[in-house]
Amino acid sequence: MRLFVAFEIGPPLRDAMAALRGSLGGVRWTEPETYHLTLRFIGEVRERARQEEIHHALAAIRAPSCLLVPEGPGLFAHGEGRDTLWIGIARTDALMHLQRKIDTALTRAGIAIADRRKFIPHVTIGTLPRQFPGTVPSAAQSPTHSTALSAWMARWGATPLPPLEAAQFTLYRSVRGAGQPVYVPLADYDFGQ
Predict the structure, then answer these.
(1) What stretches of the chain show up as alpha helix (H) in DSSP?
(2) Where in this protein would one find the motif HXTX 1, according to its record (predicted)?
């Protein structure tokens, strides 16, 4: 099963982000029930013993609670397919400390951390077609559409969203289907402090 560790995004932040749905044309909006901030993508883990090792490693983590402070929107441009539209979360000391503790606990449990890209805390709110005007400059694109994306980013970058006190983090299973993935919570972990 495909596993990852994340914070669930609940109200009031979830409701504020959900209010953005439909505010920009051409976006395939993420369902608010699936909003989350990934702390570590683990990947495919088939062996039951490995899954239990992951659970025990996460359960042993002690860290201060985290206040998730939203920042402006951003866009991850992918090489092909669809780009990811997201709301950034501030890299607070508590959040970065927890993320490092998760990596350390998983490494000590013998779980290889394949993805060593810089941790960019964010919550995905939608995807755009790769050819969406404004994501890749092109002479064939309408300047009006490019301006619409820029204006949307500027507007929502200047609009404050409510912070969220994270009381726990969760181990999830990602189930891919015909539509958007389904995220099944397997275990919740309190901070223990």
Answers:
(1) 13-18, 48-59, 93-108, 143-157
(2) 36-39
Please give the positions annotated as active site: 36, 122
Contacts of 183 (CB under 8 A, 6+ apart): 6, 34, 36, 172, 173, 174, 175
Count of residues in the chain: 193
Domains of the chain: residue spans and CATH: 2-185 (3.90.1140.10)
- C-beta pairs of 17-23 under 8 Å, 24+ apart in sequence: 17/70, 17/87, 17/123, 17/125, 17/161, 20/125, 20/156, 21/125, 21/126, 23/152, 23/156
pLDDT along the chain (193 residues), means of 10: 95 96 92 96 91 95 94 82 90 96 93 79 90 42 58 89 95 84 93 70
CA angle 98, 167, 110 (to 5 degrees): 35
